[in-house]
Design brief:
With 685 residues, the protein is an alpha+beta fold. It is 48% helix and 11% strand. Strand 17, helix 24 and strand 18 form a beta-alpha-beta unit. The radius of gyration is 26 Å and the shape is globular.
Length: 685
Amino acid sequence: MNRLAGVTSPYLLQHADNPVDWWPWTPEAFEEARRRDVPVLLSVGYSACHWCHVMAHESFEDELTAAYMNEHFVNVKVDREERPDIDAVYMEAVQAATGQGGWPMTVFLNAEAEPFYFGTYFPPEPRHGMPSFTQVLEGVRTAWVGRPDEVAEVASRITRDLSERQLDYGKAEAPGPEEAARALLALTREYDSTRGGFGGAPKFPPSMVLEFLLRHHARTGAEGALQMAADTCEAMARGGIYDQLGGGFARYAVDREWVVPHFEKMLYDNALLCRVYAHLWRSTGSELARRVALETADFMVRELRTREGGFASALDADSEDPSTGRHVEGAYYAWTPARLREVLGEEDGEAAAACFGVTEEGTFEHGASVLQLPKDGPALDAAKVADIKARLLAARSGRPAPGRDDKVVAAWNGLAIAALAECGAFFERPDLVERATEAADLLVRVHFDATAGPRLARTSKDGIVGLNAGVLEDYGDVAEGFLALASVTGEGVWLEFAGFLVDLVLDRFTAEDGSLYDTAHDAEKLIRRPQDPTDTAAPSGWTAAAGALLSYAAHSGSQAHRTAAERALGVVQALGPRVPRFIGHGLAVAEALMDGPREVAVVGHPEDPATAALHRTALLGTAPGAVVAVGLPLAADGGAAEFPLLVDRALTDDLPTAYVCRHFVCARPTTEPAELAEQVGGAHP
């Protein structure tokens, strides 16, 4: 029976035609396991996951393997991007048991959803000391039938251990300058001064740590922080992890030098990095940072935007290799010198090979290379490079394209809204602001349900809302996107929507001690209520919510929201000095708190060029986490959808005027962009 045919998850739909009798995660699946007295085989992955595809081809599409699975297990398939709560709970168990995690994740459960055996990818035959998937299935089946008491005891013990785990929440108070300095010192020790970034291979783009470094420099003037951020950004932008033709970043590099990427492109990575490069340009005026920010924004719009105006989750790592007909990783992106000459001609092909580091030996597989932009490459004319890139991009577009996961994830669209809105404002690209607004409209129109709690839905596809409730990161990141959009557009309705979302965070996700849960109080009960403050590839729900609470408090003057943000940031005090790479967004939010954050009110008619000049200057200020309101002065009884920062703000000599405040204590009002720039941390035109 094909139970996946009616779901909206592209990942689950990829498995709808498997001979495995998959179930979605439903109570009925566990009832079936109880009725048949068989274990549940839980398989968790996501659409763009390379090794998920590999295991599917090797095992889930194999008739004999599927027959064994169907006879002896109830098989449940979960999209980790739709159900991050399920993924988080069982990944914690996998990591605790094996010391590592990853996807695909394979977990065996009893009918009470208690885990008793774990793993990730299993090969079709024994390999490198790893049992085959069939051996694992047979071993689990043997234990279930022959040693049921032992299996029950293991499941009970693991579940008990998970439930008793206590989070080190710290002192429930926000970190201060001392903790930020210690975090910077710890990052310095882990910094790769030769290649940029932190740690060894595989090397992930440290987007949130980079944002912390930029904010720390803006607050303290620490040149080392700025240098680490700038050098890492340049190394990534010149490496193979960055798509030199189409823009956008792959998920990570398999090496320390950023040369060979794991080719999947995720929306959250590109949204976060787009914003980081825009902020680097704002701090330094770097032309490379400007180019990469805009190319990444254009990549998101061109390749990830959906018909409904939202942004798709990801592009696959794999695509069809026309020469073999097989789906292989990186086929869409790799080049050889011969292929360059075929597309560009002899002379330009040689120039392109030298420019982009394409060699006869290759940097990837089978003599192919991933395009880079080495510092020591030939100094080609900029117009020539642009022409070569355009011709190569056109040729590449004729190759079989990687698959696209078309589901719209609320949290990641919130990150994209913030990045596109700011890029549009910084670089005078109103089309990017329009795309951000359209995505925000989609989230309000499709994802938000005022009658169901109310609640924010996690996903949609083709304009149809998914069944899964939003988790904390959805509320935090969407609120952040709406707050950035409010600052850029001057449309107070986005501030109002953000306020509604952060109020739901306080009401439905917050514990009495101020800590935050990943799921709402009324969410489906799992064996453990997930609560993870660490920032990994994207901001955790915890730190995303803390940032949104703080920004909303700065806009509104609400002490309750500020206090909630400060209490949530207590975990940053506990983790920041010890493991700063895993709490980067929390550290960035803490920098905003230490700086104020500054509240900037630009009073004037939005269509007045003088108002626009002050507004853009305010947005280009580097003061960490500053919030900006723009519009006509408001009376104290202004409408609910307006900006509190504009209340009772007067023009100066009938000229547009800017007010820069901290905790609603203001510096001298100014009508001059240059003076405003000094008050908000400087600006680059």
